[in-house]
Design goal:
mainly alpha, Endonuclease III, domain 1, globular, binds iron/sulfur cluster
Length: about 220
């Protein structure tokens, strides 16, 4: 396990350096929402089942009209729906945004623990972990579709559900790197290790990856 962890840590760094010049959408998205925990929370909620560039534009439209829980709570559900369209499930998300803003309006500290975040409508474990990591730099690994798929392709995890993969990744990486895992693997999934037809021939890990589609040359007997 020690060697596997060391290799995984090395590979995570190699992926980060490899994708940086490719400017994956997740980098711009996360940079655009980092101004406040409230913005991060609402943007993470909007991002479920929605591509990052679409989420980024929807969040920009919504925050241009209302940039605090108080102002957002004064908007109608229909107005929020129109502002965030075409994010996935925009009607349901508009309902959740209103309820969250009404709850935040009642005062008290901003929810920052997983338990507190999970009490908010529309916030599941993956979103709670992402908010913890992005807004409060708390160690958490958000296992979304990219993290789930790539961890299994690379042999970092074998779990069949995100919760199991999360536990495997927590054992594999030191806590100080947990917050990096989501951003790096999402960026990798958006550019190289795509869900369909991953670009294995161009991948920095193709010689080591157990799922590479690039045929490895057999070692010739001497
Ligand atoms: S070799 Fe292919 S499957 Fe493996 S990590 Fe790279 S892109 Fe993904």
């Amino acid at each position: 396990m020690k060697n596997k962890s060391k290799q995984a840590l090395h590979d995570l760094g190699a992926i980060r350096r490899f994708i940086a010049p490719l400017s994956p959408p997740v980098f711009a998205f996360e940079a655009s929402i980092r101004s406040s925990p409230f913005r991060i929370l609402i943007s993470v909620l909007l991002s479920a089942r929605t591509q990052d560039p679409v989420t980024e534009k929807a969040a920009a439209r919504l925050f241009a009209v209302a940039d605090t829980p108080g102002k957002m709570a004064c908007l109608s559900e229909a107005r929020i729906s129109r502002l965030i369209y075409p994010v996935g499930f925009f009607h349901t998300k508009a309902k959740h945004i209103l309820k969250i803003c009404q709850a935040l309006e009642q005062g008290g500290p901003f929810p920052s623990s997983r338990d507190e975040l999970l009490k908010l409508p529309g916030i599941g474990r993956k979103s709670a972990n992402l908010v913890m990591a992005l807004a409060f730099s708390r160690p958490a690994i958000a296992v979304d579709t990219h993290v789930f798929r790539i961890s299994r392709r690379l042999g970092w995890a074998s779990g069949r559900v995100p919760g199991d993969v999360e536990k495997e990744l927590e054992r594999l990486f030191p806590r100080r790197r947990w917050t990096d895992v989501n951003q790096v693997l999402v960026g990798f999934g958006q550019t190289i290790c795509r869900p369909v037809r991953p670009l294995c021939a161009a991948c920095v890990l193709h010689l080591r990856c157990p799922s590479s589609s690039v045929p490895h040359r057999e070692e010739q007997p001497r």
